[in-house]
Structure prediction request, 298 residues.
Amino acid sequence: MDLNKLLIFAKIAEYQSFTKAASHLGMDKSTISTKLSQLEAHLGVRLLNRSTRSVTLTESGAKYYEYCRQAVEIAEEAENFSSSLGDEAVGLLRISAANNYSKLIIESAIKPFMEANPKVKVEMIIEYRTADLIQENIDIAIRLGIGPLEDSSLIAQKVLTGSIGIYCAPSYIKKYGKISSIDELNNSKIVEFTISARPKITISKDGVSHKITTKDKEFKTNDLAAVKQASIAGLGVCILPKHSANDAVKSKELVEIFSDWEIEPFSIYAVYPSREWMPEKLRVFLKYLKELDKNLLK
Prediction:
């Protein structure tokens, strides 16, 4: 069934005129006349009585018009609703994020965004895997990365960058000795933060770069807070964002090592499916992410 033919019939019946219906629909009078004839042939009944002076509904046409009128009204309501979606931030915004940065995003971006856009509801899905945004109907993911994210069909927009440090507990140094060279670091026990597509971290000094390739990973976890606590417990050396380790360094639960070396920074990315036909709720939320205080990760 060609729904356009239903629309044409409904407008001819509404205006009781081929000329007025054609003008309303922006079509030629001959086109709508042909379309109506095709609809009547498809149904096997005459819907309209035509004369040079008037257009009236037949008995069958009057009954069929009631169904068509309702269909057209619903279609017009749907069109008006979809038009408003493009111009106004409304609906449900689904965000995928790791627990490590959910608090930061909630306080600094989601809260002011929701206060300014009361017609948007937010659902935050906390997970450590890489969610399939398309299949799971997720609008945006907040992901942690070192260097550029892997190529994909998704858009990755960097929103924050922070420094990385290397740490261990005083008890670890007491037990295994100081770590002062790359070889000693790579032969250390390591508390590993397991994330998908985990890159090797680059550390450099005096223009010479090295990759951290530690092999003895006795303890692994996908949670940065657990990495920190395991290292404080003496289970091994850890690599952490400096802002998350500062309190443990001040309390002397952790000691920063290689502090005079340059370590490749990490970034937080906003990842979303496409720039085309972006819903206004996502477009507005991205503005809040772009405006995040760049000192949040200091």
User: Anything to note?
Assistant: The longest strand covers residues 155-162. The mean pLDDT is 85. The chain has ten helices and 15 strands. Residues 59-87 form the longest helix (29 residues).
